[in-house]
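ok trying again, last paste got cut off:
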Amino acid sequence: MNLQFFIEKLQDSDEFKEFIEKHSDAFLASCFFVIDVAKPNNEEEKKYHLDYFIPSEKRMVAFELEKGIKQSDVELYGREEVPSKLKAISELEFDEIKSMIWERMQKESVNKELQKIIMSLQNVNGRDVFVCTVFISGLGIVRCWIDDENKEITEFEKKSFFDFMRKV
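nice, full thing came through this time. structure:
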């Protein structure tokens, strides 16, 4: 699966067609995905959300695609800046992203198992970037950025839950 699959699924739905007819200025501003690597058949843990910003109303709407199409408002928490529009031309398969992260973990000698990947596709400085938080065995977390256009990891950092505990 990839982003295009979910965009097409959404755009073909009556809910989206009605939404875009009412909000012609809306644009895709972010995407959110949760992939359960440890339990790939666990449908309850998978999340697929496409977020559209409506400039005329200064609000964000999320379309949840796990079980049909469900529309809900997204709380912006007082943010006033307008999010950047996604190019949304990604052809990266989610399995390809998982493999890229796994290969980088091996290169960095992070010898743990992937558990769950939380990905957010955002436009950062004019480029679509998958911002990933990866839960790994041994209470570890890997954070990385994947440049969608170049299909490469541009930032990579491993932490443990204990690193976060020390700061508290």
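cool. The first strand starts at residue 27 and ends at 36. Helices lie at 3-11, 14-22, 94-107, 161-167.
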